[in-house]
Amino acid sequence: MMKKQIKRYAFLLLIVYGTNYGQTKKYLDPTKPIEERISLLMKEMTLEEKVGQMNQYNGSWDVTGPKPESGSNEEKYNNLKKGWVGSMLTVRGVKEVRAVQKIAVEETRLGIPLLFGFDVIHGYKTLSPIPLAEAASWDLEAIKNSASVAALEASASGLNWTFAPNVDISNDARWGRVMEGAGEDPYLGSKIAKARVKGFQGERFDHTKIIACAKHFAGYGFVEAGRDYNSVDMSNSKLYNTVLPPFKAASDAGIRTFMNSFNTLNGIPATGNVFLQRDILKGEWGFKGFVVSDWASIAEMITHGYAADGADAAKKAALAGSDMDMESNIYVTELAKLVKKGSVKESVIDDAVRRILRVKFELGLFDDPYKYCDEAREKSNIGSKANNDDVLDMAKKSIVLLKNDKNILPLKKSGAKIALIGALANDKNSPLGSWRIAADDNTAVSVLEGMQQYKNSALVYEKGTDVATNKQSFLDEVKVNTTDFSGFEAAKKAAKEAEIVVMVLGEIGFQSGEARSRTELGLPGNQQQLLEEIYKANPNIVLVLNNGRPLSIPWAAEHIPAIVEAWQLGTQSGNAIAQVLYGDYNPSGKLPMSFPRKVGQCPIYYNLYNTGRPTDKDNNVFWSHYSDVEKTPLYPFGYGLSYTSFDYKNLKISKASFQKGEKIEVSVDVTNTGNFDGKEIVQLYINDPVASIARPVKELKGFELVELKKGETKTVQFTLTNNELGFYDNNGKFLVESGQFNIMVGWNSNNGLNSKFELK
Ligand code: BGC
Fold it and tell me: How many A from CA of 179 to the centre of ligand 1?
């Protein structure tokens, strides 16, 4: 390996640099330690070249076509040639990446290779379920594998950096970006963050692994009223206990980059936030990678009312530790001037550049800038059968069975007359979700196609109603159909003639995601009316939901006998849904977010605080509730059924009382009491009833996914340590306090066996 690298070094010296400049570029020597190589390179860099590394451009021109001759593209192109660009985003495909990399490596003075970033959020071309759906699997190995498939395809397309995972905790379904995260819980979110980082980055950067990016740092999931880009105000204790844990987990897992966020946090834009980026991330956590801004978030500090102009924004962002400017185009114009004026110390620039170069060296780009440019791999890896098998596996694991009265599911495999109704049942686009910029339109397997493979059932399809009236895209607002009912009659007739009706309803792919906040969480358009009409014709309905966020479906929950939460499941969506409906796969997913009864309950989450008046025990009016809807969610966090049933017994704690730091062993016996083999996600929650800062009524602190054959019992073990029992105060100090702890182990955040122990 080393020999090969040295040979390459000699070759590079000769061809790329030696011939041009006749001097030895010692930083190309792969035998030297990375920090030394960075220092050697930085010694040769001008201030402008350093600042250039902090500049990221969107490749908005046809990179393999003629060079741009005017406007901002010409400027970008010229700056690229000067070596004033550190990274590009959205340039993809081996031919394109190679062409741009060639300019950076062969035509600039120092030949520093570029990072190529892209939003590979849940797959590149072969798409996995949206991240919220994947989180419903609670299956960390599967989630890691899904990120690994995404990295395999993205890297085969020349990319070396993904802007994922999104580790924003959020408990507000109005916010469209909940589809990108892992839901409302920081413990589950942290485990998933780690799994995704490991999947994208692997243990070392071979050519199938890429740099990951934890985003959006921080607080973005708590934008007020769930309105995207809105402000965030929260206590430090909440920040440390709820928002930061998945970011910390990503940092501990060795993630190389962070992206900051659009929002202000307690009045200070995250992009200009010293406390977040310098004190916590680079200080307390010792993060050695770099921070990229979110799209134009440096310039947006002016609009926020936090910076006077471009120069002020550049200064504030750089001082706060935002190392790379995505698409504000401000660092490249302002930073060198600010250094020359003495407003920003060169050491600030040096620190940022060192961080960026470190990642490039670690990726091996100086040793082989075209490491990810392999046409043969691009052809064979992208869209392969193996990748499709993997995303199908992930899709099945992501499905949550919400209701199954009288065991209406699974469907009989033969003889049944089934009416399949709903525009989404025949939609090959929506299951791809909203972040699928590299996938081709209409490439998902639809539910109709999935069900048609079960040839012994008589299947009739009727659309019933359209969900949207316009052609949908990432850049367009969805127009919802509320007026066209013309398909209702045919759908009702089909329902009447069928034994069982499968209805696929919910959101189209672009109704959740960035800038897709909503104030209504019911079924969009006239789908609710369709559901109620069909119910009158035939109440034997299996409702399959396709959506990117929790929906509020109280009518369906009351009337419809079976409900399957199938999210937006990616390329293999229809196959996964059909296999679950026909019982070839027994669902085991559990909700990673609470489902509200009404939108007015948002934000709604299981790990809430008790308040001084939690129940109506003492007073039937003046307690903490709504007067027009129950206080509880429709479906709680952690909830999900199976075709089989599970019984919990013998909850045991190793002792009644423990010293701080001692390991607390908890066990429970779980039995499969039903008629199918199945999987159960066994969940452990704690509650600290008296603390120096009031603690939530419940907090997830452990989970295990167990597979049980019919009739089988397994003992599931958990270990609690100080890490699980403590919490952060408002100064970010981690406290473990003595006293009683209650625990609950069970099926979901609302049901389980209870016990307690003492911590001395
Ligand atoms: C989003 C980021 C994304 C970036 C680049 C922004 O609008 O907030 O999550 O990575 O665009 O596409």
Answer: 14
- Write out the two tokens for 36: 């030394």
Residue 531 and residue 545 in contact, taking contact as beta carbons nearer than 8 Å: no
Strands of the 562-565 sheet, one edge to the other = 400-404, 562-565, 541-546, 500-506, 417-421, 458-462
Residue tagged 């759906």 (tokens):
133
**Distance from the CA of 295 to the center of ligand 1, in angstroms?**
6
260 bridge partner residues: 217
Distance (angstroms) between ligand 1 centre and the Cα of 396 equals 28
666 HSE (CA, 13 A, CB side): 30
Size (the chain), residues: 760
250-298 pLDDT per residue, tens:
999 999 999 999 999 999 999 999 999 999 999 999 999 999 999 999 9
- In a 10 Å sphere around its CB, with 0-12 CB exposed, 13-18 middle and 19+ buried, how is residue 627 labelled? exposed
Token code pair at residue 704: 């295990």
CA of 199 to the centre of ligand 1 (A): 20
From the CA of 91, how far away is ligand 1's center (Å)?
Answer: 15
Q: In the beta sheet, which residues pair with residue 657?
A: 758
Q: Please report, for the chain, how many H helices and E strands are present, in that order.
A: 24, 26
For residue 259, how far is its CA from the centre of ligand 1 (angstroms)? 9
Q: Considering only CA atoms, which residue is closest to atom 4 of ligand 1? A: 295
Contact 365, 371 (CB under 8 A): yes
Residue nearest to atom 12 of ligand 1 (CA): 119
The two beta strands, 417-421 and 458-462, are parallel
The CB of 295 under 6 Å from ligand 1? The reply is yes
- How many CB atoms within 10 Å of residue 347? 9
Name the residue with the closest Cα to ligand 1, atom 5. 295
Cβ–ligand 1 contact at 427 (below 6 Å):
no
Residues with catalytic roles: 294
Ligand 1 near 122 CB (within 6 A): no
Interval 654-705: pLDDT, tens: 999 999 999 999 999 999 999 999 999 999 999 999 999 999 999 999 999 9
For ligand 1, mutation pick of 168, 228, 230, 294 (most atoms within 8 Å of CB): 294
Pair of tokens at residue 232:
């965030």
> Ligand 1, closest atom to CA 213?
10
Give me the pLDDT at residue 385, please. 98
Instruction: Give the DSSP H or E segment for 257.
Output: strand 257-260
Strands 268-269 and 400-404, bridge-based pairing: unpaired
Which residue among 57, 295, 475 is best mutated to probe the pocket of ligand 1, counting the most ligand atoms within 8 A of its Cβ? 295
* Distance in angstroms (rounded) separating the CA atoms of residues 333 and 335: 6
Q: Which three-class secondary structure state does DSSP give residue 735? A: strand
**Is there an atom of ligand 1 within 6 Å of 118 CB?**
no
- pLDDT for position 437: 84
- Here the tokens at position 47 are 């201030």
What 8-state DSSP symbol labels residue 757? Answer: E
Task: Give the per-residue pLDDT at 467.
Answer: 97
Cα–Cα distance for residue pair 116/28, rounded to 1 Å: 20
Average pLDDT rounded to a whole number, residues 600-613? 97
3-class secondary-structure state, position 498: coil
Closest C-alpha among 254, 220, 342, 290 to residue 56: 290
Instruction: Please indicate whether residue 294, judged by its CB atom, sits closer than 6 Å to ligand 1.
Output: yes
Going by CA atoms, what residue is nearest to atom 6 of ligand 1? 295
- Residue 589: closest CA among 422, 401, 355, 337: 401
* Prediction pTM value: 0.96
- Per DSSP, helices labelled H in 259-414 are 274, 300-304, 310-320, 331-341, 346-363, 375-381, 385-398
Note whether 292 and 259 are within 8 A (CB): yes
**Residues 142-193 pLDDT 10s:** 999 999 999 999 999 999 999 999 999 999 999 999 999 999 999 999 999 9
